[in-house]
UniProtKB/TrEMBL annotation:
Keywords: NADP. One of its GO terms (molecular function) is oxidoreductase activity. The keyword Zinc does not apply. The lineage of its organism: Bacteria, Bacillati, Actinomycetota, Actinomycetes, Mycobacteriales. This is Alcohol dehydrogenase. Signal peptide: none annotated. PANTHER family: QUINONE OXIDOREDUCTASE. Residues 10-323 form the Enoyl reductase (ER) domain.
Length: 325
């Protein structure tokens, strides 16, 4: 089969298309003929060697396609070996494309429990773009932060996959959603997608600027930080608010005022990708028509995976980047 193979860690040019052996059948696993594979920042970290993937390796977490055994159209949950608990994954948890060969290929093999019917109203590209970012965001906002109708949500960094999905899910549960963005264009796109307002986070006082736009100027019930700006994000919370964090691509360390934190009665919630229960909850919202399809920024042929990685690293795309095998 044709696949994109990583022979060494490094720049996008390390992603090389070539032919490799098809996946082998094994009990409890299903081979899927892929129709689309979506990119995530996680894929960039795999390419750079963060997860010490075995080489040579096929990256890619997200995908949608057709089961080769039944012909059913499916979407893939890239959360492998989650375990029985819902509060945190088991010790053997990993993401598809970390060590198990991923979706940058014509075929991929996954545990049968990681397959769900493709949402009928979604295209192949939209379906492929849903799982990782969708289940991650659902877990962050619903399972962890408990965001509910009538509450306010601030999303840090409009334009990325998590932020775009968070805007859709926040509105789906009845919250009023605000955003920060790096460019006026991303801010305009977020407003067009339903954001109540926002500010550019290029100014040093952006937490105070956006806080003034909250109800009564007291701050937001929930702040979603997918980039690692905890110390600044905290300044936009209302007393007693919840800061839910799930990424560190801008900063991996944060200095926080401990005394101000506990006097503010804040909650700091760490989260990563969700499991099967989160996926069921997400697909329930999708089936009810509450979640619009993820916006697609651009679609590349599988052979152009390196160029797709350059685009995601540039941080200029609004929406998901997709490969078409």
């Amino acid at each position: 089969m044709k696949a994109v193979v990583l022979d060494a860690f490094g720049d996008p040019q390390c992603l090389v298309p070539r032919h490799i052996a098809d996946p082998q059948d094994r009990p409890g696993w299903v081979t899927v003929e892929l129709r689309a594979a979506a990119l995530n920042w996680h894929d960039v970290l795999v390419r750079r060697g963060r997860y010490r993937s075995p080489l040579p390796h096929v990256p890619g977490a997200d995908g949608a396609g057709i089961r080769t055994d039944t012909g059913t159209e499916v979407v893939i949950l890239p959360s492998l070996f989650w375990g029985d608990r819902t509060d945190a994954p088991a010790s053997g948890f990993e993401i598809l494309g970390d060590r198990i060969p991923g979706t940058y290929a014509h075929y991929v093999s996954v545990p049968e429990e990681c397959l769900a019917p493709k949402p009928a109203v979604y295209s192949w590209e939209e379906a492929a773009a849903l799982p990782l970012v969708g289940v991650t965001t659902y877990r962050a906002l619903v399972s962890r932060a408990g965001l509910g109708a009538g509450e306010s949500l601030l999303i840090i960094g409009a334009g990325g996959g998590v932020a775009t999905m968070a805007l859709a899910l926040g509105r789906a549960v009845g919250a009023q959603v605000f955003v920060t963005a790096s460019t006026p264009d991303k801010l305009d796109r977020a407003r067009a997608a339903g954001a109540a307002g926002g500010v550019l986070h290029t100014a040093p006082d952006w937490p105070e600027q956006i806080r003034e736009r909250s109800s009564g100027g007291t701050g937001f019930d929930v702040v979603l930080d997918p980039v690692g700006l905890w110390d600044r994000s905290l300044r936009a919370l209302r007393p007693g608010g919840r800061l839910v964090v799930l990424g560190a691509n801008v900063a991996e360390r944060a200095d926080m005022d401990v005394r101000a934190f506990f006097f503010g009665q804040y909650s700091l919630l760490g989260t990563t990708m969700g499991g099967p229960a989160d996926f069921r909850g997400l697909l329930g919202l999708v089936a009810d028509g509450e979640v619009p399809p993820p916006p697609i920024a651009r679609v590349f042929p599988l052979d152009e995976a390196a160029e797709a990685h350059r685009l995601i690293e540039a941080g200029e795309a609004f929406g998901k980047i997709v490969l078409r095998p």
